């Protein structure tokens, strides 16, 4: 063994304790460190020929990199609809790295058994029936892409071909209809060879991001043959929800695969005041839910659900003797693009076991309350205006006068010490978006963020 490896192995308990202390110090300082530090670009160091060992590497990291990390795990990082990591999720993630399991194969089954139990818990959490099977993937983009890949194979089934076997040329043109599709849907269509132009925008309801069911039916009548409909259960700008009952009912007259992007909106199921928005989620053919958002597990983690795991396996099966057969209950290696599949489920298992439905209901309802308070604070600041009602956990707003992208970027940059917001565009207007999904966020954080916003607006004006 290399002498430096041997030394680190011999000192591993002490080195891991040092790492623990550094991690605790970082988390303890989240409340006071800049939410997003001033942009900084270090000099690039050459690859070391001779390593320095873990202890020295930890010390260099603490000096060179750690001070410039954002407080993205903290309560005022309100960009990207990003959660943090609950204590239990953090413990689960540490153990995931320590155990370093291959969770893909029944030849070494513990990992995928943990994943299947966890998927069952998530299915119940979101009100899905056992007609849906699920697998973990890296994020909402991959979850949407997997769902669309299954939809592509379903289209082939309807047309008597298999795109997975025969290629896209056998499938012919495809239409994907949606009112306010997330950008990851177009990216997934590009990856799958269907093309971004396959995505056809459908008219939304007046002043809303939700699709107009009448316009959707009109688009379905104008579509030649089976197609795909992508519905939204929580848009990123205003958390608007398509009428899933009305959309699903259109299948009585039209032939389409229904994919629902519920990246964070699925968590509305935990709030009695909002559960009606996703009560028809089970009617979907495939569903996307992002877990490193409101489940508050570490990056990167999401789950995808589908009613057609047979088609899923047809797309993603991996023919190699050492990976096992597909069979009636395919190993996870046959269900996603990844042959290498980290045991992401363990962090989710830990946090669900630790806090249960009640714990997550409290997180969701507190974040929703914080978003409403932030919306009220924005409405009270002279020089700002809300662009949409606060429907769940996102506040979308802009400058009352001259809302240019440049002025909003300047406003956001002024805020970065105290609160991180992301730019967006809603109804053609440049805007900022505050998304509440972190388990740490409280009313005190809202007051602090609102005060910083008021100061920044006064300075800008």
UniProtKB/TrEMBL annotation:
InterPro entries: Aromatic_deC, PyrdxlP-dep_de-COase, PyrdxlP-dep_Trfase, PyrdxlP-dep_Trfase_major, PyrdxlP-dep_Trfase_small. This is Pyridoxal-dependent decarboxylase. It holds the Pfam family Pyridoxal_deC. Keywords: Decarboxylase, Lyase, Pyridoxal phosphate. The lineage of its organism: Bacteria, Bacillati, Actinomycetota, Actinomycetes, Kitasatosporales. Its cofactor is pyridoxal 5'-phosphate. The keyword RNA-binding does not apply. It comes from Kitasatospora cystarginea. Belongs to the group II decarboxylase family. PANTHER family: GROUP II PYRIDOXAL-5-PHOSPHATE DECARBOXYLASE, MIP05841P.
């Amino acid at each position: 063994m290399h002498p430096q490896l041997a030394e680190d192995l011999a000192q591993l308990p002490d080195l891991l304790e040092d790492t623990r202390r550094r991690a605790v110090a970082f988390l303890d300082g989240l409340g006071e460190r800049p939410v997003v530090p001033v942009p900084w670009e270090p000099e690039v160091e050459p690859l070391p020929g001779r390593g320095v060992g873990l202890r020295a590497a930890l010390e260099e990291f603490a000096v060179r990199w750690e001070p410039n990390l954002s407080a993205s795990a903290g309560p005022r990082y309100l960009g990207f609809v990003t959660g943090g990591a609950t204590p239990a999720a953090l413990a689960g993630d540490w153990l995931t790295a320590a155990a370093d399991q291959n969770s893909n194969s029944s030849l070494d089954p513990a990992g995928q058994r943990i994943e299947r139990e966890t998927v069952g818990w998530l299915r119940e959490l979101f009100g899905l029936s056992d007609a849906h099977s699920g697998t973990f993937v890296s994020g909402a983009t991959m979850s949407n892409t997997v769902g669309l890949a299954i939809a592509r194979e379903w289209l082939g089934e309807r047309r008597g071909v298999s795109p997975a076997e025969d290629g896209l040329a056998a499938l012919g043109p495809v239409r994907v209809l949606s009112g306010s599709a997330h950008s990851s849907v177009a990216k997934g269509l590009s990856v799958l060879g269907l093309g971004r132009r396959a995505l056809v925008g459908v008219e939304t309801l007046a002043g809303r991001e939700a699709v107009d069911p009448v316009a959707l039916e009109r688009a379905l009548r104008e579509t030649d043959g089976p197609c795909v409909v992508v519905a939204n259960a929580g848009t990123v700008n205003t958390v608007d929800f398509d009428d899933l009952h009305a959309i699903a009912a259109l299948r009585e007259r039209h032939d389409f695969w229904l994919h629902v992007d519920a990246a964070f909106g699925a968590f509305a199921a935990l709030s009695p005041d909002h559960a009606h928005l996703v009560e028809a989620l089970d009617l979907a053919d495939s569903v996307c839910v992002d877990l490193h958002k409101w489940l508050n597990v570490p990056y990167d983690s999401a789950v995808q659900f589908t009613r057609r795991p047979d088609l899923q396996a047809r797309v993603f099966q991996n023919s190699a003797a050492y990976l096992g057969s597909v069979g009636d209950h395919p190993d996870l290696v046959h269900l996603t693009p990844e042959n290498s599949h980290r045991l992401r489920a363990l962090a989710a298992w830990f946090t669900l076991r630790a806090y249960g439905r009640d714990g997550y209901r409290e997180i969701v309802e507190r974040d929703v309350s914080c978003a409403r308070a932030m919306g009220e604070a924005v409405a009270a600041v002279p020089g700002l205006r809300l662009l949409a009602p606060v429907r769940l956990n996102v506040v979308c707003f802009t400058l009352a006068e001259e809302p240019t992208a440049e002025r909003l970027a300047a406003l956001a940059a002024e805020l970065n010490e105290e609160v991180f917001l992301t730019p967006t565009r809603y109804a053609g207007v440049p805007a900022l978006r505050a998304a509440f999904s972190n388990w740490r966020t409280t009313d005190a954080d809202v007051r602090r963020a609102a005060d910083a916003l008021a100061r920044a607006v006064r300075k800008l004006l």
